[in-house]
Amino acid sequence: MNAAIEAESLVKTYPGDVRALDGVSFGVPAGTIFGLLGPNGAGKSTTVKILTTLARADSGVARVAGHDVVREPVAVRRAIGVVGQKNAVDREATGRENLLLQGRLFGLRGAELRRRVDDLLERFSLADAADRFVKGWSGGMQRRLDVALGLVTRPQVLFLDEPTTGLDPEVRVAMWDEISALAREEGLTILLTTHYLEEADQLASQLAIVDRGRIVAEGSPEQLKAELRGDAINVELDADGVGGGALQDVLARVDGVREIVLEGRVLRARADQGARAVPAVLAALESEGVPVAAVTVARASLDDVYLRYTGRSFGEADEGSAPESPELTTAGGR
Amino acid sequence: MPAVLQHSFFMTQRHLRALLRQPAWIVVTLVQPVMWLLLFGALFKSIVNLPGFSSDNYADFLTPGIVVMTALFSAGWAGMGILQDYERGILDRFLTTPSSRVALLAGPLVQQSIVTVVQSLIIIGLGLAVAGASFPGGVPGALVTIIAAILLGMAIGALSNALALVVRKEETVIATVTSLTLPLSFLSGTFMDLNLAPAWIADVAKFNPLQWAVVAGREALTQADPDWGVVFSRLGLLALLLVGCFAVATRAFRAYQRAA
Q1: Disruptive mutation site among B93, B111, B167, B254 for chain A (greatest number of A CBs within 10 Å)
Q2: What percent of chain B stands above pLDDT 70?
Q3: What is the tens place of the pLDDT at every residue in A132-157?
Q4: 20 to 30 A from A120, CA-CA: which of A148, A177, A197, B216?
Q5: pLDDT recorded at residue A208
Q6: Chain B neighbors of A151, CB-CB under 8 A
Q7: How confident is the model at residue A320 (pLDDT cuts 50, 70, 90)?
Q8: Whether residue A323 has pLDDT greater than 60
Q9: CA A10 to chain centre
Q10: DSSP helix/strand/coil, B3
Q11: Please, what are the domains in chain A?
């Protein structure tokens, strides 16, 4: 199969010895949606910047649509559409003007350009607002325009850098439908970065989990989840300061329960048949006099995959992370 | 037409359109120069009576200086425009298209030059109609003054863009621009005949691009029979400066890519 994106051992260090990428390699077959999943600061955006010719890697090689990003940047730019994290729309212009300018930069002219712009406005339900200034549009509309801008020239490869960050839940789901439809109908290769596990699970056929500048796991969402046999049992304890080691020993004696981790007040474990193991788990905890606030049993999720490969749960990693790249610290984050 | 010209045209169009949608801005940017020309000019009217002052009408003397100084002041802020595009992600969006990098710089600078033409005509007109100036240099003199203002404005504008691309902080651009433009003005013959200024200021002014533009404009506009050697040598220096500043600004894109 043809690789639309190939990255080999990408390394990027920012001033102050911040190692944003520490040898990232992956490949994306043409026509698929590939998800880069990780918390803020993991190196997702840096990877996208290198692949879209915005930044240069210290070492390593990357090819997009068959072109080397360093030696043939213009050929790469002709082949890609990029939708960044921010709504990179010109607010002082109308939606149509935004799209027309973007098309012209790719060499589209005249009737062909006008038709393409009309199609995109229609497809993203922006036709009614097309000739109004973008500054008066809602956030969701601006985001849709941003995606439309990335599609003006029918790119071979579309980069979506956190396409739904900051959107309302309903708008987010609508955007997912739109992205899936695009990939299906236009045969696009899409590289998607996200820190929503759900989003990666929903959209991507292949996933790479990025943590601290490295890829720690790769595969389809199903493969990754299948590696975690059985169900996840989460027990929320009613008191702090419970001796972790002792508790883990207690649970380890319960039949079929394994991978026991205590994080704060939450005790996580895995079992082949979660529902069946719960009574035994509760009994074991009760015999030790540990009060339990809540118990949940869940099928394996990407959150569990993340926990398994990085040793941290996803929310926790997201909070304590370093900024993705230096300018974000000065611009006040996102 | 080569891509760089086409793209520059599209970018100029974008910036010009944004400007035309807030025409009040042109008026706002004229407030300061009008103060200098009409109030400062009136206040220091008698300065021409100083023995050795090379003009006998301060409005004649001052107007070309205010034209080029206005161009310098607005050009200093050019970097703020590119910073705004950077902060909104628009700059990165353009950088991932096949757009010419030169066009990304040239677009706003050409727009700014068009503004400079309008502002210069208004200031020259006010000089004639309100301040009581007369310009024996006529239309060619006005043309030279405007060309000098454009060359200076584009050079400083390119430099301001380069600074913005490298530091990527509004505060730094504001601090740099405000701390440079006034000293540049006072270290030139914009307000005062340098024959009557301390020798060290006259010496420093020789290397001040604002002074080159002032000399070219004043010579062409206020002399019935200008010394064209003086005029063209200063315009030549300004053109060289522009080429140099533009080269710096295109290099700044590379620095931006390295740090991105």
Answers
A1: B93
A2: 100
A3: 999 999 988 999 999 999 999 899 99
A4: A197
A5: 93
A6: none
A7: very low
A8: no
A9: 18
A10: helix
A11: 3-225 (3.40.50.300), 229-299 (3.30.70.980)
Domain that holds residue B138: 3-259
**Comparing C-alpha atoms, which of B217, B58, B36 is closest to residue B132?**
B58
* B18 reaches A (C-beta below 8 A): yes
**Could you tell me how many residues make up chain A?**
334
* Cβ pair A104:B10 closer than 8 A: yes
- The predicted pLDDT at position A330 comes to 33
Average pLDDT over residues B118-129: 96
Could A56 and B92 be called an inter-chain contact, meaning their C-beta atoms sit closer than 8 Å? no
Amino acid at residue number B211: Q
Half-sphere exposure of A153 (CA within 13 A, CB side): 22
**H or E stretch covering A259:** strand A257-263
> Average pLDDT for residues A286-313, to the nearest whole number?
79
Residue B20, pLDDT above cutoff 70: yes
* Burial of A51: CB neighbours in 10 Å, binned 0-12, 13-18, 19+: buried
* Min Cα–Cα distance to chain B from A330, Å: 8
What pLDDT is recorded for position A325?
Answer: 39
Phi, psi of A80 (to 5 degrees): -120, 160
Residue B169: band (very low, low, confident or very high) from pLDDT cuts 50, 70, 90: very high
- Reported ipTM: the value is 0.89
% of chain B beyond a pLDDT of 90: 90
What is the number of residues in chain B?
Answer: 260
Q: How does DSSP assign B200-244, residue by residue?
A: HHHHHHTT-HHHHHHHHHHHHHH-SS--HHHHHHHHHHHHHHHHH
What pLDDT does B130 receive?
Answer: 94
Residues in B touching A89 (Cβ below 8 Å): 88, 90
The predicted-structure confidence for A202-211, as pLDDT tens digits, reads as follows: 899 999 999 8
- A299, A305, A307, A309 alpha-carbon torsion, rounded to 10°: 150
Q: What is the DSSP string of A99-127?
A: HHHHHHHTT--HHHHHHHHHHHHHHTT-T
Number of domains in chain B: 1
Interface contact A333, partner B, CB < 8 A: no
In this complex, which of A86, A88, A105 lies closest to B7 when CB atoms are compared? A105
The Cα B65–Cα B232 span in angstroms is 17
CB proximity under 8 Å: B 153-182 to A: 168-169
To test the contact with chain B by mutation, choose from A10, A14, A21, A101 the residue with the greatest count of B C-beta atoms within 10 A, namely A101
Confidence of residue A316 (pLDDT cuts 50, 70, 90): low
Helix pair B101-129, B138-167: axis angle to 10 deg: 140
User: Quick one: closest CA in B to A58, which residue?
Assistant: B258
Q: Judge: B14–A77 Cβ closer than 8 Å, yes or no.
A: no
A143 vs B contacts (CB less than 8 Å): none
How near does any CA of chain A get to the CA of B13, in Å?
10
pLDDT of A327 higher than 50:
no
Q: Which of residues 226-255 of A touch B (CB under 8 A)?
A: none
Q: Is the pTM of this model over 0.90?
A: no
